[in-house]
Specification:
The chain is an alpha+beta fold. The protein has eleven helices and six strands. About 45% of the residues lie in helices and about 15% in strands.
Length: about 290
């Protein structure tokens, strides 16, 4: 990091030496992870988490302190989020999303899903991401940005389209034109899950769709998430499924019982002399299993 400072600062290594050699510099306060009680209402807990994310500050250094690979399993990303809380270094928008997932894992009634934006300004394209949340049928978001209006949104929006249009208006005030929106599916609350986050289940081109079709696609995605939640509590953890397949004694015993029942059905339907020899062999096979 000091080499990076010396490289980009006009004073070069002199500024780094001056800072590192100073003995009277005040200590930088380290933000504390909010201690959230289960009895505290979800909206208040979200506000506390957003305050913590904001206290870490946005990373303006030009380099990223934490390498985040979107293809990593959820358990690996949660380990990285834990490291973020220990280091308490400035973060960018993607790191804020991972941290938001980590800090809301103990809120099973809160659904979380990534929302990515692609905008155009002054001949350049810009990308941003926040963590969408849904609590009690109301939508909001957690995140960090250079712009206050592109970060936190309290869970007060009645529909997903209202939330996205609010971000679009905020971008418009910054002279940015919204080009694309990518929506992911709900993230598992299991911190040990080996599944990957689904970052872009729906990719919506704002200009090609038009206003009304854009709104319809947003609501379609919201319905898809509700249906997925209705079938369970979000996507199942592959870790749990794999353990059941390997270690469940009931599954291991079911196969011989099914073979036995099929043999009995064949005996009751066919009266052949050779059938009497089949049962000892089958039972012997069951004992070997």
């Amino acid at each position: 990091m000091w080499r990076h400072v010396a490289k980009i600062h006009p004073e070069g290594e002199m500024v780094a030496q001056r800072i590192r050699g100073a003995t009277d510099l005040p200590k930088i306060p380290i933000p504390s992870v909010p201690a959230l009680q289960p009895s505290t209402p979800i909206p208040e807990r979200l506000e506390a988490i957003q305050r913590y994310i904001k206290e870490l500050q946005y990373n303006h250094t030009g380099t990223q302190f934490f390498e985040i690979k979107k293809s990593r399993p959820l358990t690996g990303l949660m380990d990285l989020a834990k490291e973020m809380t220990k280091e308490a270094l400035p973060i960018k928008c993607l790191e804020a999303v991972i941290l938001g997932i980590y800090l809301t894992n103990n809120m099973p009634t809160l659904e979380r899903f990534p929302i990515s934006f692609k905008t155009h300004f002054s001949g350049n394209y810009f990308r941003h991401i926040v963590l969408g949340v849904n609590f009690g049928g109301r939508y909001g978001a957690l995140g960090i940005s250079r712009r206050e209006e592109l970060m936190y949104k309290a869970p007060t929006f009645r529909t997903l389209s209202e939330l996205i249009f609010n971000y679009e208006e905020a971008y418009h005030r910054c002279w940015h034109v919204l080009k694309k929106v990518k929506l992911g599916h709900c993230v598992s609350h299991d911190p040990h899950s080996v599944e990957q986050i689904e970052w872009k289940h729906s990719i919506l081109d704002v200009e090609k769709l038009g206003r009304e079709d854009f709104r319809k696609e947003l609501e379609r995605h919201a319905r898809d998430m509700r249906l997925k939640i209705g079938k369970g509590t979000g996507p199942p953890s592959p870790t749990k499924d794999r353990k059941k397949d390997v270690s469940s004694p009931q599954r291991g015993q079911s196969s011989p019982h099914r073979r036995n029942s099929r043999g009995e059905r064949r005996l009751s339907g066919e009266k052949k002399p050779g059938e009497s020899k089949a049962m000892p062999d089958l039972n012997g096979y069951q004992i070997r299993v």
